[in-house]
Amino acid sequence: MVGPVTLWLAFFVAVPLLYVFVMSFCSLDQNYNVVFAFTLDNYARLADVNYIAIYMQSLLIAFLTTVICLGLAYPFAFLIARTVSKYKGVLYMLVVIPFWTNSLIRIYGWRTFLGANGWLNNALIALGIISEPLDLLFSKATTILGMVYCLIPYMVLPLYTAIEKLDKNLLEASADLGAKKLTTYRKIVIPLTASGIFSGSIMVFIPCLGLFFVSDILGGGNSDIIGNLIERQFQSGNNWPLGSALSIILIAVTLLLVKLYQKCGGDMESLGV
Amino acid sequence: MGRNAKMQTGKAAGRLYCLLIYIFLFLPIAVIVVNSFNSTTSKPYLSWKGFTFDWYLKLFDNTALLASFGNTMVIAVVNTLLATCIGTLAAVGMYKYKFRGRTVIDSLLYIPVVIPEIVMGISLLTLFSKTNIPRGMLTLILAHVTFSIPFVIFNVRARLAGYDNSIEEASLDLGANRMQTFFRITLPVLAPGIGGGALLAFTLSLDDVIISYFNNGQTKTFPLKVMESIKSGVAPDINALSTLILIGTILLVVLTQRSSMKSKENKE
User: Fold this and answer.
1) In degrees rounded to 5, what are phi and psi of residue A128?
2) Is A107 part of the contact surface with chain B (CB cutoff 8 Å)?
3) Whole-prediction pTM value?
4) What is the pLDDT of residues B150-166, one digit of tens each?
5) Which domains can be identified in chain B, with CATH numbers?
6) A48-271 placed in CATH 3.40.190.150
């Protein structure tokens, strides 16, 4: 019964990743064909100052995105997970529905909304708040906005699950014993929902390093992330070995974070959304 | 302010906050839906020129767009069937039998879930190019099944957590063979998990951009068609099709939810 899945995972997950690893040590001939001649050049090129600036930028964008997602999603998940409304199921579904519209076109929707001729600028001009359209697009801030937008459901869902499991009696006991609301949150709620915080953070941070189309559409080339570097080497740049070496960085960061997550007691199963 | 009044304002603030988050989530979708009714015909289709239903009709003349949507549907359906079969078998097998290499399979399963999609995309690209498999429909399906399988397995596994083995033993004791027991006892019990996994596989496939982008060759899926159009401005007919897809998916989910709720009621 596990035969098909074993073959599938071996051939389409393990082999390709090993092949990327091998390719990261390959060279190119004059016609940009990959040749199996061992070299460390690709890794040496990773230390290029321009590249390092982009890794830093990418990590910064991912970090800020994760913090903003957590800040926005925690109170939200708390409110919808603990509501007594009979529409609780609907409130939950409403978080998932945006997923079903293509993410590219939703990101383009933001570009339309924020553009010089977009709804926001038009509204502000109509209200007389501004006279000239604001230049809102193509910055790090808009890239982060797009990332937060794409990834916030991955933060909300694990938080929702963790908060829903919270035992109400504990909160009441804490209040009865004289704890202030803030103390209850700090000492009971946050520690007991830490699993959701960890898995949500990891599900936001890691993809944020790779979602190249968000920075393409909203960042306008000013806020490239590691994903953009890789994409270019496999498309226009046509340097697959260098692209593979760049991917190895992403794989390394992923492994590191997952290990850290497991060390903190994180359960792999809860990463499945 | 009394305690009650304080609680009331707290509640109102909470509601307002949730409303703002929902507005944030649905704002770009509103842009898409509104622009699908925009009668403008000049690129980049941004300024509002009045209301029209035309794009929903013109959509059916845009053969390239319809073909891309057809490809997306074929891939999504085939992907869902394959991933659901392989994933369900795997989940049941891994639950029942302890064997060596189980942990290896387990860790391989998590890779497509946690690794950035771009890494999955380029690694499959290098494999297909090395093995000379021409990129197109076939490679798209292979790629989609690869990232869908884990989600099916996790869903079925969640259902297996509360599974009572003795009903299978009873079935075998009563003279049913293993095949009959699997199809008439095991599968029906796992059905909600399998259905959830299948639905997830379907929607993931429908929406995939990055992995498809590297493995499509000349075959365009709907998301890739959107990507292509972004440079020149997304035309209202693409917005119209997106709106229809959204409505279709919502209907699909509402119907499956309703039927699973009904079957629950029948059991009780």
Assistant:
1) 75, 15
2) yes
3) 0.88
4) 999 999 988 888 788 88
5) 62-267 (1.10.3720.10)
6) no
